[in-house]
Structure formats: structure tokens, C-alpha cells
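#structure-requests
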Amino acid sequence: MTDCTYEYFTVFADSIDTTTWVDGNQSQFTTYLIRDLRDIVEISIVNCSFDIGSNEVIYIKADEFVSQFGLTGVNNNRQHSPTTKAKLDGSITRIPGVASGRNVFNQFDFDTTVRFINPIRRLDRITTRLYDQDGNLVISSGTNFITYRLKSKSENLCV
């Protein structure tokens, strides 16, 4: 069945190229799109693989995809400052950590869909940041990969 209302895009992001790192850190990297995308109404993570050692959990956040509906609950036993809570709030998702090796997530593990009532009018980059359970940027010892799926509200696709 043809969907004449939306266009779908797949964006592959990684930290292979050191020029994409933000502040020299592999756990925050920027992917520049070849062409601008317009009117993004939904995003999700198809898969990701991170080499970040042992963490209880990994929060995945992209500066361009912060939604008012992406609230993050925190454990009352941890002392989270308002700054830490703000870093974690608006995350796309969080994935369980592993004791050692690579963290791997696939889209069917659980839903990571984020919807936007007001579409993102223009998207030319995605800045991904990986945080641990305490709101600190994780220490990455290798290359990180993430695949985003973007849904764009477009018109006249089936004319």
C-alpha cells in the first residue's frame, strides 16, 4: 500500500570521523546531512551499537530531536541536580547497559518513536549525545553507530 502522506528517510550516523566529534569526545558526534530534510514529524532509532564499557543504562539524546513528551524519570536514591535532570530529560530513549563489550540495540527490542506536534521545519544535522545513568557523557573507547528513521510530512507524493 502506497503512503501518499509521508516520506521516510534513513540516516546513518557514526563517530568514525574525528571531525564529527563535539568537544573531542566520541560519545557526542554530529552527522551533517547531504541535503536538508523538511517537516519532520516523527523519528525513531532503527539500531545502534556503542563501544562504551560498563554502564547501568545509556541515554541517547539528539539536540535536534528534543521533545516535550520525552520525560525521563530518575531514581530517588540518586542525587540528581537540576542540571543532570535537564541533560537526561528529552532523551530519545535509554537502553540497558552491558558489563563489557558493545551495547547493541535493534528497533524491535522496544519502541523509540518520538513524535512532534509541530514539525521540525528544517533539519541539516543530527548531534547525538550518549549519557550514563548519572547524566555524564559516557567514556567511549571505540566507534559508535546509530541509524535513525525520519518521517517527513510531504505533499503531492502520489500525483
